[in-house]
């Protein structure tokens, strides 16, 4: 197994203005004219209809129905009923002026049990959704995997087993064959760090397992699945079509609490576990040597076979960056709960790093308890612009949960979210100004939804959803974002829509 990084994979930019022109516009406070303004969702969080048209259970169905795993025992059984309301939701996107929509496909909806032929009814739903988007001039971006592994594949071992990566490639081919005639943008995986380390390390996400070696095995097989899936997509789309392949990572903007050597070493170690465990294989075709050394007391990494890292290193047309808050670390363990922002558990999502302490930034926090710090997004965009030159970047998730309530007229004014978006999109402009080739931004999320183990208690949506009636009401932030998308310039942070805005 090689562990010496090679040069970053390059790809010819595929959309957007040349970086120099974009930087000049950014210096004027303007986004490129063809900047992608979008919003993102995930299948299990919004679709509902969990037992309709041939869909079988995923690990999130099982996990959310297990007592004590989600707040209030909430499940995605109904969620926001997008499976039956997709046309309404697409019409809402059009009214808000979105140019692109990133959604994920439910694996167990289109390939029940994770093996065998496709379920036509499931694929037909995504065909209709895609056609509705295109009819309204909204560019679809399809994410193949947003954490909802078919339960039967988990029963066979899940992501710690190599076979799951091959099953993913088969599934990717089915989606490519079905949607490749109308979809150009594909993301293989969303946040594989969460799938591996929260699902198999700390257990706060499905499937709820708590084995650090399984978490590392899962990370590797997700890397392999990305590579195999990208190959399968490119081979399966109809003749004459060329898909643009991305992966959406959630790299951590890791910062040492002080300049002390032990804190700097903590930063290096967490950077390896949060970031380079994926970017090493995906961008460079190799795992970083320090990651292997740091985790050697747990595993010899013999589950990595010759050629795996090279397979993971497929040419990327775009690199997706998801960002919410930075991580601040120091060397040495202190008493008390682990404050890494990834849920409460007696088990750590950080293998071989129990002697590292996490700290939240001082100042404003969102309803998730995450610090508000747009500089972390700037740091990541400029970092990966330098690390993967020639690979355009997308912000494929960014947003915030805040509590709110309607006013006397039933409107939802959310000034905290507007300030959050203003700050983070300003950071995107700063990164473009300084040479980062950022092609678009996807707000998380379009709609309030099932927020994983937090249930329905945390609301990220630019659009409020009444979970009893399923009525959608755009918040002030949705109108702010629509204005930004229309003008290519950020409205003021104290923006408030006209009273009759619908």
UniProtKB/TrEMBL annotation:
One of its GO terms (biological process) is cellulose catabolic process. One of its GO terms (molecular function) is beta-glucosidase activity. GO terms for cellular component: cytosol. It catalyses: Hydrolysis of terminal, non-reducing beta-D-glucosyl residues with release of beta-D-glucose. PROSITE patterns: GLYCOSYL_HYDROL_F1_1, GLYCOSYL_HYDROL_F1_2. It is an enzyme of class 3 (hydrolase). It holds the Pfam family Glyco_hydro_1. This is Beta-glucosidase. It comes from Streptomyces albidoflavus.
């Amino acid at each position: 197994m090689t562990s010496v990084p090679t040069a970053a994979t390059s790809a010819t930019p595929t959309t957007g203005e040349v970086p120099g022109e974009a930087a000049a516009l950014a210096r004027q406070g303007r986004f490129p004219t063809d900047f992608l303004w979008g919003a993102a969702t995930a299948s299990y969080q919004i679709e509902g209809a969990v037992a309709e048209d041939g869909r079988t259970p995923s690990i999130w169905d099982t996990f959310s129905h297990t007592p004590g795993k989600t707040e209030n025992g909430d499940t995605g059984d109904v969620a926001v009923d997008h499976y039956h309301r997709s046309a309404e939701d697409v019409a809402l996107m059009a009214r808000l002026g979105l140019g692109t929509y990133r959604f994920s496909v439910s694996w167990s909806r289109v390939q029940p049990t994770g093996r065998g032929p496709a379920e036509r009814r499931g694929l037909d739903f995504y065909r209709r959704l895609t056609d509705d988007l295109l009819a309204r001039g909204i560019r679809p971006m399809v994410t193949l995997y947003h954490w909802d592994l078919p339960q039967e594949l988990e029963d066979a071992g899940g992501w710690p087993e190599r076979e799951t990566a091959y099953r993913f490639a088969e599934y990717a081919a089915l989606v490519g064959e079905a949607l490749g005639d109308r979809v150009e943008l594909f993301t293989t995986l969303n946040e594989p760090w969460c799938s591996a380390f929260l699902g198999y390390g700390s257990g706060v996400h499905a499937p709820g397992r708590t084995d650090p070696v399984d978490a590392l095995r899962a990370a590797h097989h997700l890397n392999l699945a990305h590579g195999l899936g990208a190959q399968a997509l490119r081979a399966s789309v109809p003749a004459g079509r060329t898909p643009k392949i991305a992966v959406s990572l959630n790299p951590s903007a890791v910062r040492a609490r002080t300049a002390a050597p032990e804190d700097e070493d903590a930063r290096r170690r967490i950077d390896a576990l949060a970031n380079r465990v994926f970017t090493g294989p995906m961008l460079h075709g190799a795992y970083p040597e320090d990651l292997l050394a740091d985790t050697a007391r747990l595993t010899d990494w013999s589950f990595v076979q010759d050629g795996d890292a090279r397979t993971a290193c497929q040419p990327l047309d775009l690199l997706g960056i998801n960002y919410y808050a930075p991580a601040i670390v120091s060397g040495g363990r202190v008493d008390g709960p682990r404050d890494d922002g990834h849920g409460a558990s007696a088990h750590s999502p950080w293998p071989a790093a129990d002697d590292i302490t996490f700290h939240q930034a001082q100042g404003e926090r969102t309803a998730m308890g995450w610090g508000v710090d747009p500089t972390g997004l700037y740091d990541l965009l400029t970092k990966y612009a330098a690390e993967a030159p020639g690979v355009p970047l997308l912000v494929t998730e960014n947003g915030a949960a805040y509590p709110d309530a309607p006013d006397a007229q039933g409107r939802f004014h959310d000034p905290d979210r507007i300030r959050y978006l203003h700050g983070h999109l300003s950071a995107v402009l700063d990164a473009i100004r300084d040479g980062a080739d950022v092609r678009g931004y996807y707000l998380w999320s379009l709609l309030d939804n099932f927020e994983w183990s937090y249930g329905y208690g945390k609301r990220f949506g630019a659009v409020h959803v009444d979970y009893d009636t399923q009525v959608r009401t755009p918040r002030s932030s949705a109108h702010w974002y629509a204005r930004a998308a229309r003008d290519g310039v950020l409205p003021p942070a104290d923006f408030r829509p006209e009273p009759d805005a619908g």
